[in-house]
């Protein structure tokens, strides 16, 4: 089999899989009327079943993208039915053109495609006739109708491939993009940070404060917020009131004895050798000063992390334990036997034994077990709280009648408050409306809450006195940034008269032969955009958050011909642009066929489909 034929087969199998997946579960028998066609393109009819299936699939796709209201009105607003009818019209126009050209695939090809489809393979890997028949029955397909659908799908793809075959991007297109992608630049820059400017700035006057406030009102305007009344309860709120018995605490202490009674340990590395002779020779070289432990590790092409044992007890070291624990300061001992062979052991640090008595651990155990018991207490409360709310209790009632605590907050994304750290609350608050009744929701960590939306607060400019400190801080930051810009401007003026970058002692940073993408991975995108807009030898001031940068472009180089990424980029651009051109050509071709054939839709039949799908 030729490579082209094999690729074509793989393509056809993929189409079969997508077609079968799209059709599954959309069998329909009638629409309560006599019409079986919702429209036509030339002599090709668009059946009600085809429209139902295609529209159903589009609705499912909209749901997958987050559309929750799948009413006909919403779908119309999104333009989905119109899009589906347009796609079906294009398909039918292609079918009509294929028929005019007497283009089709034979029965043998249709049979081969169906029997080769993984959707109809049995447990032995062969064609499962019963599974095929079951699929047709479940979806109200006759054998002839389904096979004709497969035939037309394959024929359309042959026609599409012939229309768009051999399309290539315009001459020079790939070269221009590759030049843009791979162009290299060398440049230097000096950063003037606002934070280092104006340590002795005078305090601003009231007029300056008011002026800055009025010029930057957006910075001091609160977003639209929801005023929410809530009642909540967390384990920490009631942990101190939950009784934990002495026996429970002592049992927990005993179970964790290894955490509270930790023997003396050492931080140890182990370097294993192939024989005892090699290990002895290595130890002698260390003792004589001919080499050191790190060099031996490097000679074995290992890293220190590869031989690190971590903190170990004497018993865990086996035969080397006594020698290692006999050291009073870091050093190397050995060789001693190990599970992997003779080894040298280096001790790096001594970790003294640690003992935590029950009395010392009591407070932490009490808090931990108190929280655990409190979580169970809260969990047991949920059904009762739900019943109270169902019976008409308010959020205030929950707080007055139970251990829940009452509060009010103004919520908006990014605004900090008592519950803002909880994802469950943030998600619920975003969708909360004044029509919603309070319900018990769970928080991470075992807490619960219920809430009510009291009102929606429109964006509000905060009074100057409320944000005076923030206004002053913003004004002083602006002053420092202005000083940074002024200093950077003076440095640039020196460049213009023959000075050098950083001649006043400023730290000069540099980048050599970097591409756009290369610098973006490690540098500032704003600086990168400025650099790649300069001509060789030019300089520019670039405003960054909290700083001004003076950058000078030293050299512009073409793409590196030996860079494999350039070749990959050229290939990807050529393929993508060719595919996009082919798609455009086919789209215009299909539109022309549709226009020539003429489109007709039956509104009554369309409405019948809509009634069944959106009932």
TrEMBL record:
Pfam families: Rotamase_2, SurA_N_3. Its main location: membrane. GO terms for cellular component: plasma membrane. InterPro entries: PPIase_PpiC (IPR000297), PpiD_chaperone (IPR052029), Trigger_fact/SurA_dom_sf (IPR027304). SUPFAM superfamilies: Triger factor/SurA peptide-binding domain-like. It is a single-pass type II membrane protein. This is Peptidyl-prolyl cis-trans isomerase D.
């Amino acid at each position: 089999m030729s490579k082209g034929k094999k690729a074509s087969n793989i393509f056809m199998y993929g189409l079969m899989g997508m077609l079968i997946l799209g059709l599954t579960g959309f069998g329909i028998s009638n629409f309560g009327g006599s019409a079986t066609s919702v429209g036509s393109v030339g002599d090709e009819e668009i059946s009600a079943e085809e429209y139902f299936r295609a529209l159903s699939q589009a609705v499912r796709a909209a749901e997958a993208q987050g559309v929750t209201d799948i009413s006909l009105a919403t779908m119309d607003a999104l333009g989905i039915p119109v899009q589906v009818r347009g796609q079906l019209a294009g398909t039918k126009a292609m079918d009509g053109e294929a028929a005019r050209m007497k283009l089709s695939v034979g029965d043998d090809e249709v049979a081969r495609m169906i029997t080769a489809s993984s959707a109809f393979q049995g447990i032995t890997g062969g064609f499962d006739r019963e599974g095929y028949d079951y699929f047709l029955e479940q979806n109200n397909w006759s054998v002839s109708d389904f096979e004709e659908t497969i035939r037309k799908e394959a024929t359309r793809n042959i026609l599409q491939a012939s229309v768009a075959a051999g399309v290539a991007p315009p001459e020079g297109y790939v070269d221009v993009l590759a030049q843009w992608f791979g162009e290299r630049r060398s440049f230097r820059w000096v950063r003037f940070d606002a934070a280092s400017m104006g340590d002795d700035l005078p305090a601003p006057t009231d007029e300056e404060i008011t002026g800055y406030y009025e010029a930057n009102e957006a910075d001091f305007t609160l977003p639209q917020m929801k005023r929410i009344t809530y009642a909540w309860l967390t384990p920490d709120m009631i942990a101190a009131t939950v009784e934990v018995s002495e026996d429970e605490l002592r049992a927990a202490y005993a179970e964790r004895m290894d955490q509270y009674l930790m023997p003396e340990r050492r931080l140890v590395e182990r370097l294993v050798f192939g024989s005892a002779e090699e290990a002895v020779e290595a130890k002698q070289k260390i003792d004589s000063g001919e080499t050191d432990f790190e060099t031996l590790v490097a000679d074995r092409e290992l890293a220190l992390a590869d031989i690190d044992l971590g903190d170990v007890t004497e018993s865990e070291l086996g035969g080397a334990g006594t020698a290692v624990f006999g050291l009073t300061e870091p050093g190397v001992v050995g060789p001693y036997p190990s599970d992997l062979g003779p080894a040298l052991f280096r001790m790096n640090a001594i970790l003294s034994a640690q003992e935590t008595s029950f009395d010392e651990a009591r407070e932490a155990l009490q808090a931990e077990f108190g929280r655990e018991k409190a979580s169970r207490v809260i969990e047991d409360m949920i059904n009762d709280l739900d019943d109270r709310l169902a019976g008409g209790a308010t959020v205030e009632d929950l707080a007055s009648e139970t251990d829940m605590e009452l509060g009010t907050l103004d919520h908006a994304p990014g605004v900090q408050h008592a519950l803002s750290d909880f994802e469950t609350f943030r998600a619920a608050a975003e969708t909360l409306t004044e029509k919603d009744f309070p319900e018990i929701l769970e928080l991470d960590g075992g807490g619960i809450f219920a809430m009510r939306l009291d009102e929606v607060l429109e964006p509000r400019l905060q009074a100057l006195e409320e944000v005076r400190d923030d206004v002053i801080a913003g004004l002083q930051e602006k002053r420092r940034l202005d000083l940074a810009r002024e200093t950077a401007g003076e440095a640039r003026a020196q460049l213009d008269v023959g000075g050098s970058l950083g001649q006043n002692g400023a730290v000069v940073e540099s980048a050599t032969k970097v591409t756009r993408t290369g610098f973006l991975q490690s540098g500032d995108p704003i600086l990168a955009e400025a650099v790649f807009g300069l001509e060789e030898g030019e300089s520019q001031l670039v405003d960054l958050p909290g700083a001004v940068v003076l950058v000078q472009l030293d050299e512009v180089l073409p793409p590196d011909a030996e860079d494999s990424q350039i070749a990959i980029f050229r290939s990807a651009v050529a393929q993508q642009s060719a595919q996009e051109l082919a798609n455009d050509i086919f789209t215009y071709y299909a539109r022309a066929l549709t226009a020539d054939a003429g489109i007709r839709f039956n509104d009554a039949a369309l409405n019948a489909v809509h009634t069944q799908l959106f009932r």
